[in-house]
Amino acid sequence: MHHAVKGLALLSARLACLLTLAVTVVGCGSDSEVAVLSGTSQPASGALVWHGSEPGAIAEASAEQLPLMVDFTADWCLPCKTLEEEVFQAPAVAAVLRSDFVLLRVDLSGDWDAPDKSALREKYGVVNLPAVRIVSVGGQVVAEIDELIEAEQFLDLLREARSS
């Protein structure tokens, strides 16, 4: 009987974790939710669509002739969360990101030194967080943001990148 109760508790904990993950990724129906997508699923209205892999993001940016924004983040990075909530989700910024950029999110929450993540950090010159890189249609990094920035300043950088 003890094993059955322990098994049920473990199953309940796993279900709670999955539910928490689903709510975190998909959101609760607010306009500020963020969809992390790797396929052809459509995000909820107003959500930003983030690629989880660089090759897919680069392929889309190339095909659509759009600049790329690369956001290096981690769940333990408070300035990263502030950028997400106060800058990326600012209405004017979000509108430009949705229409004129391909978005790539590199999550460094787990193993910072994993070979794939380490290669991306090296490629984009990332040594700490927060770190955002804006890459032109031609593949050149045209802006590096390594600190908190106001939404208006970020919008100016996006506009400059769009025209380069």
Structure description:
The chain has 164 residues and is of the alpha/beta class. Helices cover 48% and strands 18% of the residues. It has a six-stranded mixed β-sheet with strand order 1-2-4-3-5-6, sandwiched between helices. 23% of the residues are buried.
Sketch the major β-sheet.
Answer: 6 strands, mixed
**Overall outline:** globular
CATH fold type of the largest domain: Glutaredoxin
Helix count equals 6
Kindly, what is the distance between the CA atoms of the first and last residues, rounded to a whole number of angstroms?
67 Å
| Structural domain count | 2
Beta-strand proportion: 15-25%
Low-confidence stretches: 1-44
Structural descriptors:
single chain; 164 residues; alpha/beta; Glutaredoxin; 2 domains; six-stranded mixed β-sheet; 48% helix; 18% strand; disordered N terminus
Question: Which secondary structure elements does this structure contain, and how are they paired or packed?
Answer:
Elements: H1 2-26, E1 34-36, E2 48-51, H2 54-64, E3 68-73, H3 78-88, H4 91-100, E4 102-107, H5 115-123, E5 131-135, E6 141-145, H6 151-163
Parallel strand pairs: 1-2, 2-4, 3-4
Antiparallel strand pairs: 3-5, 5-6
Helix pairs in contact: 4-6
